[in-house]
Design brief:
By secondary structure, the chain is of the alpha/beta class. About 25% of the residues lie in helices and about 15% in strands.
Length: about 240
């Protein structure tokens, strides 16, 4: 766990380290949606940063998506594209958005097929970015979602709290990953962060993410304020 002043700077340093450690090997990444990673995307799309990264090494996917077109303001892929992907020479065939033009169930089936075609029958992501919602959801795995227990790689569960279907990878996929990193920012996350650590049997969706290598947590000081002690801290 890292409690830092600047979540984005720390996250980018970690990501760069993963890419360096891979040498020339392709690095598969599942991106997070929501507001927390937007600053990271904007930094990746800046002129200085865009010249420093070996874009040809990245294979990009999304952990979840809203069933909307890419140009819709709610699209996770659209947000990344506008701030970052349209500004860097990342090969188009290495960018894998959810096929939201299909119906939700078919989109989930097709996305699972794309993942296995790219990463193998038992897909292992090198790096997964996730966030945490105020009620403990992560990706589009909300409390009570049948997707939490699914054996499939991707699902299209109805989310009653949002009144809509969402597209999401399942804990099965996330738990196969080499490294999972939670990015958590803001005062509104302090209670759920405390509960996730203080009540290990609370049954929160975020607690279903249990890869073999313990997840990393990168939190700002507001989100971590209710934790009894910081296992590690850093200023950035």
């Amino acid at each position: 766990m890292l409690v830092v002043d600047d979540v984005t700077t720390t996250a980018l340093a970690l990501w760069a380290g993963v890419v360096r450690a891979a040498g020339r090997r392709r690095v598969s990444v599942a991106l997070s949606g929501g507001s927390t990673p937007l600053e990271m995307f904007s930094r990746l799309g800046s002129p200085d940063m865009s010249r420093e990264w070996p874009w040809e090494q990245l294979e990009l996917f999304w952990g979840d998506e809203r069933p909307v077109p890419p140009d819709h303001p709610d699209s996770n892929y659209g947000a990344a594209r506008a701030r970052w992907l349209d500004r860097v020479p990342l090969p188009a065939h290495q960018i894998h958005p959810w096929p939201t033009e299909l119906g939700p169930e078919e989109a989930a089936r097709q996305y699972a097929a794309t993942i296995t075609a790219t990463l193998g029958a038992t897909p292992v992501f090198d790096l997964v970015w996730l966030g945490v919602g105020p009620e403990g959801h992560t990706a589009s795995l909300f409390p009570g979602s049948p997707a939490l227990e699914a054996d499939s790689l991707a699902e299209a569960p109805y989310v009653a709290a949002k009144g809509t279907v969402r597209l999401t990878l399942t804990p099965r996929v996330f738990n196969l990953s080499r490294r999972v990193v939670f990015l958590v920012r803001g005062e509104d996350k302090r209670q759920i962060v405390h509960r996730a650590f203080a009540e290990p049997d609370a049954g929160l969706p975020v607690q279903a993410i249990q890869p073999a290598a313990d997840p990393w947590w990168i939190l700002d000081r507001a989100a971590a304020a209710d934790l009894p002690a910081f296992p590690a801290s850093a200023s950035s």
